[in-house]
Amino acid sequence: MDELNAAGDLVRIGRGKAPRPTPRPDRKFYASGRAFGRFGVRSFPPQLMAEPHSHGHIEFNWLTAGTMDYLVDGRPVTVGSDRLVAFWAGIPHQTVALSPETGRGRQVNIYLPVDAFLDMPQLGLLTETLMGGGVVQLRPESIGIDTLDRWHGDYRSGNSLRTDIVKTEIAAMFRRAALTGWDLLLPAWIENSSARTRTAAPVRYVVRMVRHIVENLTDPLTAQSIADVVGLHPNYATNLFAKVMHISVQKFVVRMRLIRARSLLFEGNLSVSNIAFQSGFSSLTQFYEHFRNAYGITPSEMRQDVIDR
To answer: What is the pLDDT of residue 15?
Structure first.
Protein backbone atom coordinates (compact mmCIF):
# COMPACT_ATOMS: atom_id res chain seq x y z
CA MET A 1 0.00 0.00 0.00
CA ASP A 2 1.18 3.56 -0.78
CA GLU A 3 0.42 6.75 1.10
CA LEU A 4 1.51 10.38 1.08
CA ASN A 5 4.03 11.55 3.61
CA ALA A 6 4.15 15.05 5.13
CA ALA A 7 6.19 16.30 2.17
CA GLY A 8 3.53 15.20 -0.29
CA ASP A 9 5.55 12.31 -1.71
CA LEU A 10 4.26 8.80 -2.26
CA VAL A 11 5.94 6.24 -0.03
CA ARG A 12 5.53 2.47 0.11
CA ILE A 13 4.42 0.87 3.38
CA GLY A 14 3.68 -2.71 4.34
CA ARG A 15 4.74 -5.82 2.43
CA GLY A 16 3.12 -5.49 -0.95
CA LYS A 17 4.17 -8.03 -3.56
CA ALA A 18 4.47 -5.55 -6.41
CA PRO A 19 7.96 -4.13 -7.08
CA ARG A 20 8.86 -0.56 -6.35
CA PRO A 21 8.77 1.67 -9.42
CA THR A 22 12.09 1.65 -11.26
CA PRO A 23 14.30 4.57 -10.07
CA ARG A 24 14.46 7.43 -12.53
CA PRO A 25 17.11 10.15 -12.94
CA ASP A 26 14.46 12.72 -11.98
CA ARG A 27 13.24 10.99 -8.78
CA LYS A 28 15.13 13.39 -6.49
CA PHE A 29 13.77 16.31 -8.49
CA TYR A 30 10.13 15.33 -8.00
CA ALA A 31 10.66 14.48 -4.33
CA SER A 32 11.84 17.90 -3.22
CA GLY A 33 9.52 19.92 -1.02
CA ARG A 34 5.74 20.17 -0.74
CA ALA A 35 5.28 22.05 -4.01
CA PHE A 36 5.67 19.10 -6.36
CA GLY A 37 5.21 15.46 -5.43
CA ARG A 38 6.01 12.25 -7.30
CA PHE A 39 3.68 10.62 -9.79
CA GLY A 40 1.72 7.69 -8.39
CA VAL A 41 -1.40 5.52 -8.71
CA ARG A 42 -3.15 3.78 -5.77
CA SER A 43 -6.07 1.39 -5.38
CA PHE A 44 -7.28 0.96 -1.79
CA PRO A 45 -10.34 0.71 0.50
CA PRO A 46 -11.91 4.18 0.93
CA GLN A 47 -11.04 5.75 4.27
CA LEU A 48 -11.60 8.88 6.32
CA MET A 49 -8.83 11.40 6.93
CA ALA A 50 -8.07 12.51 10.49
CA GLU A 51 -7.17 16.03 9.39
CA PRO A 52 -6.80 18.14 6.24
CA HIS A 53 -3.58 17.90 4.27
CA SER A 54 -2.10 19.29 1.05
CA HIS A 55 0.53 18.12 -1.41
CA GLY A 56 1.97 18.98 -4.80
CA HIS A 57 -0.37 17.14 -7.17
CA ILE A 58 -3.44 17.31 -9.28
CA GLU A 59 -5.30 14.48 -7.54
CA PHE A 60 -7.87 12.20 -9.18
CA ASN A 61 -10.37 10.10 -7.21
CA TRP A 62 -12.59 7.29 -8.51
CA LEU A 63 -15.03 5.41 -6.28
CA THR A 64 -16.40 2.07 -7.44
CA ALA A 65 -19.38 2.31 -5.04
CA GLY A 66 -21.12 4.80 -2.77
CA THR A 67 -20.26 8.43 -2.09
CA MET A 68 -17.55 10.34 -0.25
CA ASP A 69 -17.81 13.77 1.38
CA TYR A 70 -14.82 16.12 1.18
CA LEU A 71 -13.97 19.45 2.74
CA VAL A 72 -11.78 21.46 0.34
CA ASP A 73 -10.40 24.34 2.41
CA GLY A 74 -13.61 24.21 4.41
CA ARG A 75 -15.97 24.01 1.42
CA PRO A 76 -18.06 20.82 1.26
CA VAL A 77 -18.27 18.67 -1.86
CA THR A 78 -19.70 15.18 -2.40
CA VAL A 79 -18.00 12.74 -4.77
CA GLY A 80 -20.08 9.97 -6.32
CA SER A 81 -19.12 6.62 -7.83
CA ASP A 82 -18.09 5.65 -11.37
CA ARG A 83 -16.87 9.13 -12.32
CA LEU A 84 -13.34 10.54 -12.16
CA VAL A 85 -13.01 13.63 -9.97
CA ALA A 86 -10.00 15.96 -10.14
CA PHE A 87 -8.75 18.82 -7.95
CA TRP A 88 -5.55 20.64 -7.03
CA ALA A 89 -4.30 18.93 -3.88
CA GLY A 90 -2.29 22.03 -2.94
CA ILE A 91 -5.60 23.24 -1.47
CA PRO A 92 -6.10 21.68 2.02
CA HIS A 93 -8.59 18.83 1.70
CA GLN A 94 -10.05 16.12 3.91
CA THR A 95 -12.35 13.12 3.51
CA VAL A 96 -14.93 13.53 6.28
CA ALA A 97 -17.71 11.01 5.53
CA LEU A 98 -18.35 7.80 3.55
CA SER A 99 -21.73 6.34 2.65
CA PRO A 100 -22.45 2.75 3.77
CA GLU A 101 -22.20 1.53 0.16
CA THR A 102 -18.66 2.90 -0.14
CA GLY A 103 -17.30 0.11 2.07
CA ARG A 104 -18.28 -2.48 -0.53
CA GLY A 105 -16.05 -0.88 -3.14
CA ARG A 106 -12.62 0.61 -3.55
CA GLN A 107 -11.01 3.91 -4.42
CA VAL A 108 -8.50 4.56 -7.21
CA ASN A 109 -6.35 7.67 -6.80
CA ILE A 110 -3.92 9.19 -9.30
CA TYR A 111 -1.33 11.74 -8.17
CA LEU A 112 -0.11 13.86 -11.08
CA PRO A 113 2.72 16.30 -10.20
CA VAL A 114 1.34 19.80 -10.59
CA ASP A 115 4.31 20.97 -12.65
CA ALA A 116 3.66 18.18 -15.18
CA PHE A 117 0.01 19.26 -15.31
CA LEU A 118 0.90 22.91 -15.88
CA ASP A 119 3.11 21.93 -18.82
CA MET A 120 0.16 20.27 -20.61
CA PRO A 121 -0.89 22.49 -23.54
CA GLN A 122 -4.33 23.59 -24.70
CA LEU A 123 -6.25 23.02 -21.47
CA GLY A 124 -7.43 26.62 -21.07
CA LEU A 125 -10.26 27.01 -18.58
CA LEU A 126 -9.66 23.53 -17.16
CA THR A 127 -6.25 24.64 -15.88
CA GLU A 128 -7.67 27.82 -14.39
CA THR A 129 -10.53 25.95 -12.74
CA LEU A 130 -8.31 23.36 -11.04
CA MET A 131 -5.57 25.78 -10.04
CA GLY A 132 -8.24 28.18 -8.78
CA GLY A 133 -9.49 25.63 -6.24
CA GLY A 134 -12.33 24.13 -8.28
CA VAL A 135 -13.31 20.44 -8.21
CA VAL A 136 -14.29 18.92 -11.56
CA GLN A 137 -15.87 15.62 -12.55
CA LEU A 138 -14.95 14.18 -15.94
CA ARG A 139 -17.71 12.86 -18.14
CA PRO A 140 -18.18 9.10 -18.68
CA GLU A 141 -16.78 9.19 -22.22
CA SER A 142 -13.47 10.58 -20.93
CA ILE A 143 -12.39 7.63 -18.75
CA GLY A 144 -13.57 4.31 -17.28
CA ILE A 145 -12.51 1.95 -14.53
CA ASP A 146 -10.90 -0.49 -16.99
CA THR A 147 -8.44 2.21 -18.08
CA LEU A 148 -7.76 3.24 -14.48
CA ASP A 149 -7.01 -0.37 -13.51
CA ARG A 150 -4.66 -0.70 -16.48
CA TRP A 151 -2.87 2.50 -15.40
CA HIS A 152 -2.56 1.13 -11.89
CA GLY A 153 -1.05 -2.09 -13.25
CA ASP A 154 1.38 -0.15 -15.44
CA TYR A 155 2.54 1.94 -12.49
CA ARG A 156 2.88 -1.06 -10.18
CA SER A 157 4.86 -2.96 -12.81
CA GLY A 158 7.95 -0.92 -11.97
CA ASN A 159 8.53 -0.30 -15.70
CA SER A 160 9.29 3.39 -16.20
CA LEU A 161 8.34 3.30 -19.89
CA ARG A 162 4.89 1.97 -19.05
CA THR A 163 4.54 4.76 -16.48
CA ASP A 164 5.50 7.33 -19.13
CA ILE A 165 2.75 5.97 -21.38
CA VAL A 166 0.27 6.41 -18.53
CA LYS A 167 1.29 10.07 -18.19
CA THR A 168 0.86 10.58 -21.94
CA GLU A 169 -2.61 9.03 -21.80
CA ILE A 170 -3.56 11.24 -18.84
CA ALA A 171 -2.55 14.29 -20.87
CA ALA A 172 -4.74 13.08 -23.76
CA MET A 173 -7.63 12.53 -21.34
CA PHE A 174 -7.29 16.10 -20.09
CA ARG A 175 -7.19 17.49 -23.62
CA ARG A 176 -10.36 15.58 -24.51
CA ALA A 177 -12.07 16.90 -21.38
CA ALA A 178 -10.98 20.44 -22.24
CA LEU A 179 -12.71 20.06 -25.62
CA THR A 180 -15.83 18.11 -24.67
CA GLY A 181 -16.43 19.65 -21.26
CA TRP A 182 -16.66 18.49 -17.67
CA ASP A 183 -19.04 18.83 -14.73
CA LEU A 184 -18.24 21.34 -12.00
CA LEU A 185 -18.68 20.01 -8.47
CA LEU A 186 -17.11 23.00 -6.72
CA PRO A 187 -16.48 26.36 -8.42
CA ALA A 188 -13.02 27.87 -8.55
CA TRP A 189 -12.40 30.89 -6.38
CA ILE A 190 -10.99 32.70 -9.37
CA GLU A 191 -14.48 32.65 -10.89
CA ASN A 192 -16.15 34.12 -7.81
CA SER A 193 -16.73 37.86 -7.58
CA SER A 194 -16.13 37.86 -3.83
CA ALA A 195 -13.70 35.97 -1.64
CA ARG A 196 -15.33 33.26 0.47
CA THR A 197 -12.28 32.24 2.45
CA ARG A 198 -9.10 33.79 3.72
CA THR A 199 -7.07 32.06 0.98
CA ALA A 200 -9.38 32.90 -1.93
CA ALA A 201 -7.73 36.20 -2.91
CA PRO A 202 -4.16 34.84 -2.81
CA VAL A 203 -5.20 31.88 -4.95
CA ARG A 204 -6.78 34.19 -7.55
CA TYR A 205 -3.60 36.21 -7.78
CA VAL A 206 -1.37 33.14 -7.90
CA VAL A 207 -3.41 31.48 -10.67
CA ARG A 208 -2.89 34.55 -12.82
CA MET A 209 0.84 34.61 -12.05
CA VAL A 210 1.18 30.88 -12.79
CA ARG A 211 -0.62 31.28 -16.10
CA HIS A 212 1.61 34.21 -17.08
CA ILE A 213 4.76 32.26 -16.22
CA VAL A 214 3.73 29.12 -18.12
CA GLU A 215 2.66 31.09 -21.20
CA ASN A 216 5.82 33.24 -21.26
CA LEU A 217 8.63 30.86 -20.29
CA THR A 218 10.91 32.02 -23.11
CA ASP A 219 10.71 35.67 -21.99
CA PRO A 220 12.77 37.23 -19.20
CA LEU A 221 10.65 36.70 -16.09
CA THR A 222 11.45 38.94 -13.15
CA ALA A 223 9.61 39.45 -9.88
CA GLN A 224 8.60 42.89 -11.14
CA SER A 225 7.20 41.66 -14.46
CA ILE A 226 5.27 38.83 -12.78
CA ALA A 227 3.88 41.15 -10.08
CA ASP A 228 2.79 43.63 -12.77
CA VAL A 229 0.40 40.99 -14.13
CA VAL A 230 -1.66 41.15 -10.92
CA GLY A 231 -0.97 44.81 -10.06
CA LEU A 232 0.78 44.08 -6.77
CA HIS A 233 4.07 45.16 -5.23
CA PRO A 234 6.78 42.59 -6.16
CA ASN A 235 7.53 41.69 -2.53
CA TYR A 236 3.87 41.17 -1.71
CA ALA A 237 3.24 39.20 -4.91
CA THR A 238 6.19 36.87 -4.43
CA ASN A 239 5.28 36.26 -0.79
CA LEU A 240 1.73 35.32 -1.79
CA PHE A 241 3.06 33.01 -4.48
CA ALA A 242 5.36 31.22 -2.05
CA LYS A 243 2.58 30.88 0.54
CA VAL A 244 0.15 29.26 -1.91
CA MET A 245 2.56 27.22 -4.05
CA HIS A 246 5.08 26.27 -1.31
CA ILE A 247 7.93 27.32 -3.59
CA SER A 248 9.47 30.67 -4.53
CA VAL A 249 8.63 32.33 -7.84
CA GLN A 250 12.24 32.01 -8.97
CA LYS A 251 12.39 28.27 -8.26
CA PHE A 252 8.99 27.75 -9.89
CA VAL A 253 10.17 29.48 -13.09
CA VAL A 254 13.29 27.28 -13.21
CA ARG A 255 11.19 24.18 -12.50
CA MET A 256 8.77 24.89 -15.35
CA ARG A 257 11.63 25.65 -17.74
CA LEU A 258 13.28 22.35 -16.85
CA ILE A 259 10.02 20.47 -17.39
CA ARG A 260 9.70 22.14 -20.79
CA ALA A 261 13.31 21.23 -21.63
CA ARG A 262 12.79 17.62 -20.60
CA SER A 263 9.75 17.38 -22.88
CA LEU A 264 11.69 18.83 -25.80
CA LEU A 265 14.51 16.33 -25.25
CA PHE A 266 12.12 13.44 -25.86
CA GLU A 267 9.89 14.99 -28.53
CA GLY A 268 12.38 15.57 -31.32
CA ASN A 269 15.95 15.98 -32.47
CA LEU A 270 16.57 19.57 -31.40
CA SER A 271 20.11 20.36 -30.31
CA VAL A 272 20.69 20.91 -26.61
CA SER A 273 21.47 24.58 -27.25
CA ASN A 274 18.15 25.05 -29.08
CA ILE A 275 16.32 23.30 -26.26
CA ALA A 276 17.93 25.62 -23.72
CA PHE A 277 16.84 28.66 -25.74
CA GLN A 278 13.27 27.40 -26.32
CA SER A 279 12.93 26.63 -22.62
CA GLY A 280 13.80 30.18 -21.59
CA PHE A 281 17.34 29.78 -20.25
CA SER A 282 19.58 32.77 -20.91
CA SER A 283 22.73 30.73 -21.46
CA LEU A 284 23.79 27.15 -22.12
CA THR A 285 25.96 27.19 -18.99
CA GLN A 286 22.99 28.19 -16.85
CA PHE A 287 20.87 25.47 -18.47
CA TYR A 288 23.43 22.73 -17.80
CA GLU A 289 23.88 23.86 -14.20
CA HIS A 290 20.16 23.81 -13.40
CA PHE A 291 19.54 20.58 -15.31
CA ARG A 292 22.31 18.67 -13.56
CA ASN A 293 21.24 20.00 -10.16
CA ALA A 294 17.66 18.89 -10.79
CA TYR A 295 18.15 15.53 -12.51
CA GLY A 296 21.67 14.45 -11.60
CA ILE A 297 22.74 14.00 -15.24
CA THR A 298 23.24 16.18 -18.32
CA PRO A 299 20.53 16.71 -20.97
CA SER A 300 22.47 14.56 -23.46
CA GLU A 301 22.82 11.75 -20.91
CA MET A 302 19.10 11.81 -20.18
CA ARG A 303 18.24 11.67 -23.89
CA GLN A 304 20.65 8.76 -24.44
CA ASP A 305 19.25 6.96 -21.41
CA VAL A 306 15.80 6.96 -23.00
CA ILE A 307 17.14 5.84 -26.38
CA ASP A 308 18.99 2.90 -24.79
CA ARG A 309 15.89 1.53 -23.03
So the answer is: 39
